[in-house]
Amino acid sequence: MKPSLPLATIAAALCLLFIDTPALAAPANSPAAKAAATAPTTRHHELQTNIVDGKMVFVDAKGQVNPVLTANTGDTIELVLKSGEGAEHDLVIPELNVASAKFSASSGKVTVRFKVTKAGSFTYYCSIPGHRQIGMEGKLQVSGPALADAGATAAPAAGHGGDAGSAALALYTPAPSPMRGPDPAAVSVAANPAQVPVAIGARAPQLLKYRMETVELPGKLDDGTTFTYWTFNRQVPGPMLRARVGDTVELTLFNAADSKMIHSIDLHAVTGGHGGGQHTQVAPGQEKTVTFKALNPGLYVYHCATPLVPQHIAAGMYGMILVEPEGGLAKVDREYYVMQGEMYTGRPHGAPVHQEANLEKMANELPDYYVFNGEVGALSKTHKLQAKVGETVRIYFGVGGPNKISSFHIIGEIFDKVYSEGSISSPKHDVQTTLVAPGGATIVELKVQHPGSYLLVDHALSRAGKGAVGVLEVTGDPVPGVFHAGAHQ
């Protein structure tokens, strides 16, 4: 008979047996392994906006442009967003009811977190008008079964050291900005029509250098009404440029550091490079330069060419460049610079508020205002045109638009000459009203022969009630026999 082992020895042996025997791993394709692989987790992504190959994009930490983000249902996604070029952006995923706060250089980073509860392919993009169209969109791919509360759920944002702009996301519920009163800091942006560069005349071609600044600022749209204008050189229209055929023009565009938008310039006088727009997409605080030769004489419009292009134009970003022919233009007594534009606002015409742009009205071509030189009363109160009897007046007239044709007319006068569509080669004579397309121009000349107030209008006359009225004030003695009130004497 064998002696029995002590209980302590047996217990120790059993412990060694369990310690030395490796645990059996679940097969890779077992339900347990699959569950572990798809267990909810937090997925962290950092996206920075930038301009790459002329497009606005999101870029991840590895330099990938508009990266495909991946997740499983149940995961929490954390996005840290930063404006790399300084302009204002946001990120939205409407299908998941997700939207970030707006962010820019001044706001710093923003952090958003949300839980995904349904599978599929979802598009993220910047909802600032035009930014998606110019490249700011990517994909979020979500795998796995849908959860009971299908949709995305906002989660509080975790704090990040140094991220002064961190904030929890809001659900995607685009809404108009709250109504506020006129901006007390608003200034007049109306360009003085008499600020026309001096005539060039007969000289050899040369190099001209221009520098312009894009500025966003509150301006006076009407009595008691203000608007946030986007401008060239703080005025509407932007400064008139003047060259002669054969000149080489070096143009530098600087975007003010406090701008929220990227801006650019497309000059209709330029051959190549989208008129300059391709190579002048300028972020806040930066500048870019293009050089071109003035190949064709004429009067040409320029405007911002950053998407959403109609929005930038309607906000005031247009002007003109005159390219004189060899030998210059005939001398006249007075020259004026006038442009017509239309504006689309969230509140009715004349509302005593700070107006915001209404893009739906713009898309449907339903303006609330028609203006000469940027604001109501610009050429009837702020800057009247002046002349004396016997003088010849030349008006460089253009339409910024972005949508409407102008039927330009001066009540009580006849155009002695009209250079239709800005073409200097073959003027028309004795014209009452001339059509000017959006993005088009004309030159009119008239000799004034009777004193009085002559009204500049778009002869689609309902537009006069929406702001399109200017005044040419003529002084002096009347020319006998031209006009008088009453019967023939």
TrEMBL record:
Its EC number is 1.7.2.1. CDD domains: Cupredoxin (cd00920), CuRO_1_CuNIR (cd11020), CuRO_2_CuNIR (cd04208). One of its GO terms (molecular function) is nitrite reductase (NO-forming) activity. It comes from Janthinobacterium psychrotolerans. Residues 48-142 form the Blue (type 1) copper domain. Keywords: Copper, Metal-binding, Oxidoreductase, Periplasm, Repeat, Signal. Homotrimer. GO terms for cellular component: periplasmic space. It is found in: Periplasm. This is Copper-containing nitrite reductase. Residues 221-326 form the Plastocyanin-like domain. Its main location: periplasm.
